[in-house]
Structure to design on (240 residues):
């Protein structure tokens, strides 16, 4: 994660650097020089200002400015003997603040708890293997007859929970030493689902639908969450 933060911060700094340089450069050129070459200073201020938020605009603008506009401006200034306008300290401060805010934003994006981090393919494939074993174990459970008692139904829920608990234990061991936030969140949904199971089994034993149906509904939200995340991250074998 630290390497990613550093890399992203450097990328942001490099991408907006042409725009910040352009704003500082343009601000130093007198209006008379711009008028002499038939260009408007305000247009280039807009280009480089946009480049801070859309980096490609600033990069393209810097290339055009360096190759076509700047040489003409410097030629006019040299012919007239006009000096560059001194750079105002406020502009330096503004440039530093903008760059700082961009870097802070990049850092917050990478470290945010809801950052959209994907599960690495190798980890996803290992998880698929574990889930395929769990599916096989689950499928091996004998089917309940239509006349099954509430006790038999509750025991079936408990056997299924035991399979899921072993599966999640194996899945969690796959990620040890190299934590992946999305993977951990996915397993947290599984934990939430499993934790609701014992109460659901006990509710089934009452034989009262007004008790066991609401108890069963407690597992719906985490089940939707872990199945959705599995599909989005290529862990199709872990959809239950």
């Amino acid at each position: 994660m630290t390497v990613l933060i550093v890399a992203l911060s450097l990328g942001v700094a490099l991408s907006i650097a042409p725009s910040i340089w352009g704003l500082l450069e343009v601000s130093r050129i007198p209006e008379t020089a711009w008028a002499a070459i038939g260009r408007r200073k305000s247009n280039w201020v807009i280009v480089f200002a946009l480049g801070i938020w859309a980096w490609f605009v600033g990069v393209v603008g810097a290339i055009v400015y360096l190759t076509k506009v700047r040489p003409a401006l410097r030629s006019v200034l040299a012919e007239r003997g006009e000096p560059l306008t001194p750079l105002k300290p406020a502009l330096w401060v503004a440039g530093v603040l903008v760059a700082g805010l961009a870097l802070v934003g990049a850092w917050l994006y990478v470290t945010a708890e809801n950052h959209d981090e994907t599960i690495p393919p190798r980890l996803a494939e290992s998880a698929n293997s574990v889930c395929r074993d769990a599916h096989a174990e689950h499928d091996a459970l004998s089917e309940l007859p239509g006349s099954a008692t509430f006790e038999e139904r509750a025991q079936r829920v408990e056997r299924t929970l035991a399979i899921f608990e072993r599966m999640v234990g194996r899945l969690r061991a796959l990620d040890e030493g190299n934590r992946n936030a999305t993977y951990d969140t996915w397993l947290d949904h599984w934990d939430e689902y499993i934790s609701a199971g014992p109460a659901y089994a006990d509710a089934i034993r009452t034989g009262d639908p007004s008790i066991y149906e609401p108890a069963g509904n407690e597992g719906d939200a985490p089940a939707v969450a872990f199945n959705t995340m599995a599909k989005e991250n290529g862990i199709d074998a872990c959809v239950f």
Q: What stands out?
A: The chain has a mean pLDDT of 85. The chain has two domains: 2-111, 121-238. The chain is about 75% helix and 0% strand.
